[in-house]
Amino acid sequence: xxxxxxxxxxxxxxxxxxxxxxxxxxxxxxxxxxxxxxxxxxxxxxxxxxxxxxxxxxxxxxxxxxxxxxxxxxxxxxxxxxxxxxxxxxxxxxxxxxxxxxxxxxxxxxxxxxxxxxxxxxxxxxxxxxxxxxxxxxxxxxxxxxxxxxxxxxxxxxxxxxxxxxxxxxxxxxxxxxxxxxxxxxxxxxxxxxxxxxxxxxxxxxxxxxxxxxxxxxxxxxxxxxxxxxxxxxxxxxxxxxxxxxxxxxxxxxxxxxxxxxxxxxxxxxxxxxxxxxxxxxxxxxxxxxxxxxxxxxxxxxxxxxxxx
Length: 309
Known about the structure:
The protein is mainly β. It has helices at 3-6, 96-104, 141-144, 177-181, 227-233, 302-306; strands spanning 28-34, 45-46, 52-53, 61-62, 82-86, 110-113, 122-129, 134-138, 152-157, 171-172, 186-189, 192-197, 199-202, 220-221, 243-250, 256-269, 280-287, 292-296. The longest helix is centred in the N-terminal third of the chain and has 9 residues, at 96-104.
């Protein structure tokens, strides 16, 4: 794999505790309800080779797909792991409550079920899916069995405005501060921060979602239609919850191609058959100057990090 040539695969010898502005952040409730999967009048989806079929997709309660599981090779299109929620409340005719849910929810936030048979039980936010504007939550299997579509889930939204005090030009977003603290990031000197990732993704294959004006909600897709690139970077082994590095990219204030820039993303939804689409990467960090140094670590996945919280 080319990543062996691009990045050091061994931990750096220098490890300095990272400081954040956690004490300045506001923790505020946002709420949503479990959505139903959606079906269209024409159920078929056509891939770039012209083949059509009917696939499970976004929404609902997905019982057998969770963080840590394979995000590629499923008979699915944009399927979301665990539970998908939205806020259908309309405020003055505008979808402001759902926008707030999607902007202020951060990966790692505690999500509490506040209605239905599973009331009082908790899980954690695993990502945000753009376009459909869902927030995704992981629960233990026994809790999933108690949930029904329409149950309400309240999230302690904490992390908006999070920054690394010693890295003012490295943008951090969509992460709970407690999650960031267990992700194994290191100050390696020269103004650079090392971040463990499972995969390197070249910006040339980023698709749907690129060009969005901000990165505080939603995601953008990793196209997997070019077999040589997939094999070179080992992308067929992507898992839900993987932390990945997108090279020659920036997402500080919108998702763009930027030579030398690095974006850190979290895999939030599955592979897709539609042209321009693929596993979704929600932005977690960005450095247009390339001050983020990825280090390959197969354990860099939310499943492992949540176990430390």
